[in-house]
Amino acid sequence: MEVSGGGIHALCEDALAEILVRLPSESVLRCRAVCRSWRCVAADPSFLAAHAARRPREMIVVCMEHGMTRSAAHLYLDLEPAAGRRRFYLSPVRPLAEDGTSTVFCLRATLDGLVVLQESRRGLYIICNPITEQWTNLPVLPRCSTTYACGFYFHTLSGEYRLMCHGVEDEEEEEGGDTTRSNYHYVLSAGSTLPRRLSRAPSSEAPSTKPAYGIPVSYREILHWFSEHPQGTETGKMLAFDTVSETFRLMSGPPGPERPDLEWMRDLLVLDGELSVATKLDLTLDIWVLQDYGAAERWTLRHRVRLPPPRDFGLIGDLPMIYRALPVERNAILIACTSARMGTLYDLKENRVCRLIDFGGRPTFVVFSESLVRHAFFDLPPFPDITPPKFSEPDGESEEFA
């Protein structure tokens, strides 16, 4: 119904922005095509930043039944399972027309609506926005035979998005021609053409096993890992990387299990504004909090709860029972097995299980939030002959995934 004064087109820009900022990203993109004034409002940088800040936190899931396609489920304490919006953002498998082989993109990190993928054929890293379907590659590491993505972060001093990598270089000695393997840490900045080697980095000697950094937890602009990293394996401490000064240090590690022979879990997270660790031993869940951060660094037991016996978790194949924890809201935590479809949403304040969540695939425990914010590095040409990622259809559902 049209009201006096010209209807919705008579709205001032501020009122229109207040309406559009509440819409999903797909709707905002459609509204840009209505008229020039709507496009100006929906493309303004301040509007895009406000819109991104309102997007819900989602959890990336690997859907085995859809060819390993990534999807997302909202992370809300009071959200009913059926109300969770499922969207297929991209497919990590791209067939090559010439030789019939496939390129696989491995999900490495997410931040501010950006996704970092690693291309399987040459190990190149790609940064993309699955909502705007823009992408480009990060700087190439030509001398590294193997690379491991360690952490993706925003460098506040330069305004750059950067990926820190552990690279293994094969170097030939002058005498005898023997090949040695050297380990370095590099910074790959979006929009830059050359990588940068960090002057001080842990574990200069080659690790005996494949380093498993995992996805770090960011707290106070510092990335944190458990003892799986090369240096922490022997020290039992946590590795911390200051994203401002881009330097490493070791921190006090969280307590381990009293019975390491039993099935247990230990996972870092930021809960209620504090760096915490969730320790699961059998059906007991402990939440430890790091006190006096940067000083004494003492771990204090904050919560101890008894979890209910697991139901049908829909285990996939013969994968190990590795449990992970993820903060959902204030005093709420999600516990799930990486080889199962089901997860338990637990309210720590009320000390009760809120519900079970069926992810529809294996959870990867990567948090994602949509964003339409523009980035100049997407205008740069990508590396030659690189296979572009395959995005979903504009409505989020294509026949391939029906």
What does this structure look like?
It is a single chain. This protein folds into three domains: 1-54, no CATH class; 57-91 and 253-366, no CATH class; 94-251 and 372-395, no CATH class. It is 9% helix and 41% strand. The protein is built from five helices and 26 strands. It has helices at 13-20, 25-31, 36-42, 45-54, 232-235, and strands spanning 58-63, 69-74, 87-91, 93-95, 102-111, 114-119, 125-129, 134-137, 144-155, 160-172, 179-189, 196-197, 217-219, 222-225, 238-242, 247-251, 264-271, 274-281, 284-291, 298-306, 323-327, 332-337, 342-347, 352-358, 362-368, 390-391. A hairpin with a 4-residue loop joins β22 (332-337) and β23 (342-347). It starts with 12 loop residues before the first helix and ends in an 11-residue tail after the last strand.
Task: Write the topology of this structure.
Layout: H1 13-20, H2 25-31, H3 36-42, H4 45-54, E1 58-63, E2 69-74, E3 87-91, E4 93-95, E5 102-111, E6 114-119, E7 125-129, E8 134-137, E9 144-155, E10 160-172, E11 179-189, E12 196-197, E13 217-219, E14 222-225, H5 232-235, E15 238-242, E16 247-251, E17 264-271, E18 274-281, E19 284-291, E20 298-306, E21 323-327, E22 332-337, E23 342-347, E24 352-358, E25 362-368, E26 390-391
Antiparallel strand pairs: 1-2, 1-25, 2-3, 3-26, 4-5, 5-6, 6-7, 7-8, 9-10, 10-11, 11-12, 13-14, 14-15, 15-16, 17-18, 18-19, 19-20, 21-22, 22-23, 23-24
Organism: Panicum virgatum
Protein name: F-box domain-containing protein
Domain F-box: 11-51
Feature tags:
F-box domain-containing protein, five-stranded antiparallel sheet, disordered C terminus, mainly beta, SCF_F-box_component, F-box-assoc_dom_typ3, 3 domains
